[in-house]
């Protein structure tokens, strides 16, 4: 494959982690990086920024752009965010849109935008930040973990390699978090029949995409997700915030009976939710004043039970929008 018309970018300081976007392995065989040049089967190419798909080969990652004329090189705008925990999504993600491409790796998000789009659309930075935040909220509903997302920094990369850097805010401090316990089930022939991590990551991707799609459009959904986020970030009052979710859908659908029917929540689970949030003498519950002196902390099993029901309510409402 002739790569003489392709522009390639190799960062000596930051490894670009490969995402789920497809790459052409054959086209990249024989490539090696040397300073600011990329060598392909003896052909030395001047490196520059490019975008489209990623491929990991040994410890390097390359980006392969659509074929363009070497004389048509132009500036590119790159927005970058930091987030923690760095494994919040567990897997690298590539998001392609008409106006930009976003890659999410460990603790870093990069958006690649053509300068004419960035310069003529004054709201694109805020829209991208809000869309990314929606994805974090979608994952938070499944992981029940807090997160930090920095403001973006921006730099403009010129054809000659110069960078104009703009810092909008200091990035957040990166923190580590304990991972999930995963298991893989195989049959007698060692074929994988169940992979808990793969399923969890796929569900995170689907939830993130749904929340990004609808949160800005539906104020009621935004309020449900806000209550869930408050429960994550205010654990002393967690059950108070989670109860707001059930209470809100009951009002939305005019009655508890209508809400249960519309969202597919069984009467048993609905009642159990109410008992744990309202009736049990729990320090995180709603009616602590009724049980002075006998309050106890909710067990992890009780908290998980309430979280799961609250999450199921939000997921069911999301599916109704979809």
Describe what this molecule looks like in 3D.
The chain is α+β, with helices and mostly antiparallel strands. The chain has three domains: 1-72, no CATH class; 74-216, no CATH class; 218-321. 38% of the residues lie in helices and 21% in strands. The chain has nine helices and 15 strands. It has helices spanning 25-28, 115-120, 124-143, 196-214, 219-233, 238-252, 256-263, 267-279, 300-321, and strands at residues 8-9, 31-34, 37-40, 43-46, 53-57, 60-64, 76-84, 93-96, 100-104, 108-113, 148-149, 153-157, 163-167, 184-186, 192-195. The strands form four sheets. Strands 7, 8, 9, 10, 11, 12 and 13 form a seven-stranded antiparallel sheet that branches. β5 and β6 (60-64) form a beta hairpin. The chain is elongated, with a radius of gyration of 24 Å. The two termini are 42 Å apart. 27% of the residues are buried. Residues 1-73 and 169-182 have low confidence and may be disordered.
């Amino acid at each position: 494959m002739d790569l003489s018309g392709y522009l390639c970018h190799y960062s000596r300081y930051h490894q670009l982690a490969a995402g789920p976007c497809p790459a052409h392995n054959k086209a990249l065989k024989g490539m090696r990086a040397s300073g600011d040049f990329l060598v392909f089967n003896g052909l030395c190419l001047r490196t520059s920024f490019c975008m489209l798909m990623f491929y990991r080969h040994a410890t390097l990652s390359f980006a392969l752009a659509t074929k363009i004329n070497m004389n048509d090189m132009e500036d590119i705008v790159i927005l970058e965010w930091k987030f923690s925990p760095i494994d919040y999504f567990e897997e690298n993600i590539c998001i392609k849109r008409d106006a930009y491409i976003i890659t999410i790796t460990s603790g870093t998000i990069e958006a690649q935008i053509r300068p004419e789009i960035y310069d003529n659309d004054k709201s694109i930075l805020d829209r991208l930040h809000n869309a990314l935040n929606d994805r974090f909220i979608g994952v938070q509903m499944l992981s029940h973990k807090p997160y930090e997302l920095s403001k973006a920094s921006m730099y403009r990369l010129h054809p000659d390699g110069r960078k104009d850097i703009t810092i909008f805010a200091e990035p957040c401090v990166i923190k580590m978090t304990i991972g999930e316990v995963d298991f893989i089930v195989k049959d007698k022939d060692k074929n994988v029949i169940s992979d808990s991590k793969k399923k969890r990551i796929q569900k995170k991707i689907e939830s993130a995409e749904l929340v990004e799609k609808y949160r800005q459009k539906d104020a009621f959904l935004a309020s449900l997700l806000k209550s869930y986020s408050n429960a994550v970030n205010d654990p002393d009052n967690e059950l108070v915030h989670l109860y707001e979710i059930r209470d809100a859908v009951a009002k939305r659908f005019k009655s508890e009976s209508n809400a249960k029917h519309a969202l597919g929540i069984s009467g048993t689970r609905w009642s159990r939710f109410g008992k744990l949030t309202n009736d049990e003498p729990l320090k995180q519950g709603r009616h602590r004043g009724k049980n002075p002196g006998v309050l106890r902390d909710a067990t992890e099993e009780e908290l998980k039970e309430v979280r799961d029901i609250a999450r199921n309510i939000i997921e069911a409402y999301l599916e109704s929008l979809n």
